[in-house]
Design a protein that fits this description.
With 322 residues, this protein is mainly alpha-helical. The chain contains 12 helices and no strands. It is 71% helix and 0% strand. It is globular, with a radius of gyration of 27 Å.
Length: 322
Amino acid sequence: MRLGRTEFLWFHIIPLVPSLLVTIFILYHLLKNRALHNALNNHVIILMLAFGLILELTDTVWFIHFYRTGQPVSSTPTFCLAWAYIDSTLFVSITLLMTWASIERHILIFHPHWFETKIKCFCFHYVPLFVTSVWPLIFYLIMLVILPCDALFNYERRLCGHYDCMNTIAWVAMFDSVVHYMVPAFIIVIFSGTLFLRVIYHKYQVRRRIEWRNYKKMSFQLLSISLVYMIIEAPPMILNAAYLAGLSWDVGADFYANMLDLSLWVILFTPFASTTSLPDFNAKCRKLFCFWKTRNTIHPAVITNTERKPASTRRSFRQSFL
């Protein structure tokens, strides 16, 4: 069954506010704590949450307005260009960052020597983060803003229908679909599942050769976020691959359309899965919202005798315990 605008409206409104609060909360603690923001495994989480915060404050709010009124916030070409560009670039950047995180986590846990020197760390850590963050900005700037497009703005459609410009060139549409959506979804599922199996194997087979506590935290930090992508992003991408392979578009058409419209759920629910990035998360929450008050406890007073004993007595007392 195809969901209507009212359903999509509430499906975006309900998780938006708690998602914003959790995102700001986690980013604050990750950036405030030097040990946390210096940890390599947290860099990709910080970028994903930062991009997600921008997307929630702009794209998600604009979608809510569109589902409520049937019109964009501003029926102008400039706004439609900005809406289509922000929606495409930030969503794909977050997806590519998550894809790289699912690969990099294997390196961090099982091949940490790849990051031993500054040059190695630059090549295998910072360069991939930069490429996955900047590539969508350049690609969609060219395709949606710079290159001319014959598709007219339709103010009664999502993104004003401007994303149709991606479909004017067949190979560009195929490249965008496969490289930016389908392949990342499959990589996240495969590498996250493989990471889980490798961690379990190393835990029980070669436990003495790895620092299990640190690696367990890094693995479950990724797996919790990957689960969001597996549930929300992977099913429509599997269907899309099946459609390209020859499956009739009538099969699962409503489910496919609904999941595409709910794709922002990936952004909205990622912050909740990212709470594993913070140590003692429950304690931080109680401290922030003052749910628990510190109780004044009364300790019994210890009265000590300060009178000095004769040396012989002290020696015999000590010797009785030796």
